Amino acid sequence: MRALYYYIVLIAAIGWAAAASSYDVEAKKFIDQSSERYYRLYNQIAAETYASIKDDDDFEAVFSKLTTVKRIANELVQISREASTFDQNKIQDAQIKHALQELRSVGDLFVLGDDYFESVLINLVALQELASDKDIEPYLNGAYMPNGDDSPLAYYPDIQKIVQTSNSSAELQYYWEAWREKNSLWASVNFYTIVESFQSAAKILDIPVLQLWYRYNNDDFLKQMEQAMTELMPAYKQLHAFVRQELYRKYGADVVDVNGPIPDHLFQQVLEQAWEQGSIIESYFPRIELPQYDDFVKDLSAKDLINESERFYTSLGFDPLSKEFREQQLKEPDESQQNDDCRAAIFDLTPHVYLKYCEKVNFRKLMQNHGHMARVYYAQQKNQLPAYYFNSYDLEYSVGEAVILSAASPTHLTSIGLAKGVQFTDKSLMNRLFRMGIHTILKIPMYYVHTKVMNDLLNGTVDMDTVNRLYWKLMEQHAGIEPPTDRPENAIDFPYKFYVNIEQNHQTKKFVSEILGYQFYRALCQKTGHRGLLHNCDFYGNYAVGSDLKSMMSLGSSKPWQEVIAKILLPDNANLSSLALLEYYQPILNWLNAHNKETNAKIGWTSTKRSNL
């Protein structure tokens, strides 16, 4: 959970050699003492967390139960209060001033005191369980389920699996509505408590609520997101037009307006089926013509996937995983409890990162492990910094995205022998690229909309009575999506992923990692001197790339966000931009432009006809 994570990254001693005023000396002494107060508990927290994990436990769920948490929370709140007593105007040393500013907010949501433990944590757990509670009756009393099973379903993974295979608009609409009707009241109550908790914590800490929420130390961060959206929109509209036309052909005018927004239940179907045989691109790029990616790893174990991911980073000049990590921080799965839906769990206690990996072996898990390793190696590079610089603006996710793009390239898979004997034809490359594009390009506007909704709720420009109208207005404006039916006045229609790790601002994190991940990938490919199509670049084995990554990682958050990413993107390009992503997908964008012109597809969309929006 956010407060349980961020408190570990904001406290430590700093040493300055410069002369300082007596007031600066007093402030520095406080900072040093604050560090000592925390580090007496640091290793105990890490050891207790990991020792408490059982095979079916989530790291953060366990962490919230640890006996030390309330004690740590009280320490952090006290530090925040003491840091607030220093007059910033009297501080001469810029580093001391920055340290005090960081320490003022170290209490995070813990400043709410018992309300955090007795209310906020409960609300967060309740929001996570919206997706996992088995409380949805199956469509037509289970008539479409194997053996007519009428047992209640959870959204994840039960309904999600149905969406991945179903071609029935009525069935998809039923689940879309049923889940929201079942959860609307509890979602709104628990969700708004989280919104109010951030507003209250910011007021207590005497900092702007959006500063507490975003943490990028950048006043125009939302404007940067808007600029990236502006760059993306022409390409998005081309893909949207193609998707809508294919859905219109599949379901007819009674379900899909060939000129209007796409009904959300069908839009979600398109996303979930992107890599399935029933995808809307099947008649153009059949799934069967893709290489069988899972066959690439069929002879590997779950541990082999970890080793293969590690090998990518060591090829760039990073150190191998330490013996300590493998023995104390890498948790092996319980092979007696096979689970097709298993997910890796990572708990970042920089400089320690604990990883419990999944026992399932497939190509997707291999790529996910490459992303997870970015967090491990990022922690390794920034562990010499004062701990309040450990918050690395979540850039480990963007680095992981860039590494995945390289590791998944046909060039890489062929060169390391996983795709031995496989011929990647131009058509199979387009097939792969199109499915990736659906999965990536169509999601980015949703991440933006979710970010904008939270932004406006937190700053008070919208309230819970009107937020659903805002949500659909933004979904129509930025994504060309509408609900499948008219919505009641009291509806709260956010999807379940909106609530996942909401206290960590997960949706903004996803937006940034996608956009910036492609920017990092292109810049690192340029470092290698790559020529040719961007989507087939591999920077594996390039020490110069590794050097650039290390120089950025080692900064943590000791410099402003844009200065940090400039270590890879260079100062003139150190902003969020969709241009690298567009270059990556240019082959399918060319195909879409020609296809839409040939079929006279409408680009853009008319206004929705749904009521109460």
Could you explain how this protein is built, in words?
This protein has helices at 2-6, 22-52, 59-63, 69-84, 94-104, 114-132, 155-165, 169-205, 209-214, 221-251, 264-272, 302-315, 323-329, 363-382, 395-407, 410-415, 426-441, 444-458, 467-479, 496-499, 506-528, 543-553, 561-569, 579-584, 586-598, and strands at 262-263, 330-331, 345-349, 352-356, 481-482. With 613 residues, the chain is an all-alpha fold. Among the domains are: 1-107, no CATH class; 293-421 and 506-578, no CATH class. The strands form two sheets. The protein has a three-stranded mixed beta sheet. The protein has a two-stranded parallel ribbon with strand order 1-5. β3 (345-349) and β4 (352-356) form a beta hairpin. α2 (22-52) runs antiparallel to α4 (69-84). Residues 3-19 have low confidence and may be disordered. One of its GO terms (cellular component) is extracellular space. Chloride binds at residue 216. Glycans are attached at residues 74, 575. Its cofactor is Zn(2+).
